[in-house]
Specification:
The protein is an alpha+beta fold and 293 residues long. The chain is built from six helices and 17 strands. The strands form three sheets. It has a six-stranded antiparallel beta sheet, covered by helices on one side. A six-stranded antiparallel beta sheet has the order 13-12-11-8-15-16, with no helix packed on it. The chain has a five-stranded parallel beta sheet with strand order 3-2-1-4-5, with helices on both faces. A hairpin with a 2-residue loop joins strand 15 and strand 16. The radius of gyration is 20 Å and the shape is globular. The protein starts with a strand and ends in a 9-residue tail after the last helix. The relative contact order is 0.15.
Length: 293
């Protein structure tokens, strides 16, 4: 079995879990490839030099015939690992070294049982829809995809912006607001949820458009088909607006249009036993919490 590990910095209370991860993989004769920056952090902070097969720096350096990518960190780390998983065409599983861990579902307490399932191949693969952004000058390069959302926000100004949205070339609405979120079902439980958007189940075939602090009480989030092509053009008192694809950001002139659609690529997420979407909603977001239950 060949496994790649991608991760970010962690606190001291996760040290024992790092030892356990590598010791378990070594004990089961797994070939381990680690992101070089992450390995350097482990060597320096823990004085721990695990037995590995090799390293990689970017998605183009991913070894062939990998079985799995382990993302060690929080949900943000999983978002950063998307390009690596897509480049190697392998599923990804998140081990949570942070706080909430909605996508990174494996905790320190469930680490042992999770590895038993992983090493036995006792898990399912769940495909998640991705957004693809096209714009002038290809500002995001090969990283023009998002697992969670595209966000358009005002920048360097306290004034709201207006965002004209066209759905399949039909005018939808002008949003007067601080910004706009277009989220996938995966992203519906992230920023969009905080801005008042609905929860959408994975695989439902939808996106959600959620305004950020709209200056109109009649404007509410709207759910659309993920086969839709969105064209967006912002305007405001300044010169620029900010567009974010998950953790990636770029500044755009108000004269530039953004074209957003469903990507042909899909991210493969590992789904362990008893780790369903609604279970995660109840446990992580306390969805439906009621003393009567």
């Amino acid at each position: 079995m060949k496994i790649a590990i991608f991760g970010r910095e962690f606190k001291d209370d996760f040290n024992d879990s790092i030892y356990k991860i590598f010791e378990t993989l070594n004990k089961n004769n797994v070939e381990i490839y680690v992101h070089e920056e992450y390995l350097n952090f482990i060597n320096k902070e823990l004085f721990f030099f695990p037995k590995i097969t090799g390293t990689f720096n970017n998605s183009n350096q991913m070894p062939e015939n990998l079985d799995l990518l382990i993302s060690v960190g929080g949900d943000g780390t999983i978002l950063e690992s998307v390009s690596y998983a897509l480049g190697a065409n392998i599923p990804v599983i998140g081990i949570n070294s942070g706080r909430l861990g909605f996508l990174a579902q494996v905790s320190k307490d469930t680490l042992s049982s999770a590895f038993v399932q992983l090493l036995k191949g006792d898990y399912q693969i769940e495909e998640r829809t991705l957004l693809e952004l096209n714009c002038q000058n290809n500002r995001f390069g090969d990283l023009n995809i998002a697992l969670n959302e595209l966000t358009i926000m005002r920048v360097n100004s306290s004034s709201m912006i207006s965002i004209n949205v066209y759905l399949n070339d039909e005018f939808l609405n002008t949003y007067w607001s601080d910004g706009l979120i277009i989220a996938t079902p995966t992203g519906s439980t992230a920023y969009s949820l905080s801005a008042g958007g609905p929860i959408i189940t994975p695989g439902s075939g939808n996106f959600v458009i959620t305004p950020v602090s709209p200056h109109n009480l009649s404007v509410r989030p709207i759910v659309i088909s993920d086969d839709s092509v969105l064209r967006l053009k912002a305007d405001g008192r300044g010169r620029n607006f900010l567009a974010s694809l998950d953790y990636k950001q770029a500044c755009f002139a108000f004269s530039e249009e953004l074209i957003l659609k469903k990507s042909q690529k899909k991210l493969k997420l590992v789904k362990l036993n008893n780790d369903g979407f609604f279970t995660t909603l109840r446990n992580k977001l306390l969805w439906g919490m009621d003393k009567r239950n």
